[in-house]
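BUG: 3D viewer hangs when loading the predicted structure for this chain

Environment: internal workstation, default settings.
Expected: structure renders.
Actual: progress bar stalls at 90%.

Input used:
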Amino acid sequence: MTGGNIEASYHEEIYRLMTVDGLTQLFNRRYFNEALDREMGRAKRYKRGLSLLILDLDHFKKKNDEYGHVAGDALLKQLAVAVGPKLRKEDILARVGGEEFAVILPEVDLEGAKLAGEKIRKIVEETKFNFDDTDIPCTISVGCSTVTDTTEDSKALYGAADAALYKAKEAGRNRIAF
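Structure tokens produced before the viewer hung:
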């Protein structure tokens, strides 16, 4: 390996560490924010669809309290493994908070986003989450938003998805709202 290759590998690893969540190996909030801004610009510029899903593991604090934080971490990793491979390669799945994940859906309108959100909700509901030989049933609530002519920026898109997430929780959890 030449000196240039070693240096390039070093910089790639530093970038990976800055943009990947250490626990789930998904993109982190920093990468997500950059990607959402980039995709928002593209959607506005070329008048293309762009949707956003925010996923929150239902009653996660209760699971942490009951089974312990190590179990909670295991559930987050298992969710990433269950959902990640089921998305399109152009979709961006990131861990954006404690038990909160987001999926950027380029070229997807509201109807497509609803289908994707329901698909993910069902995957999580049907996944056998397990820690220390104990099954821990998990569900998610999903908030969905789509770029419209009046969507100002990526913060507004995120805010709309976040508001929809709270509607899903208030309506009983384990559901999608938009």
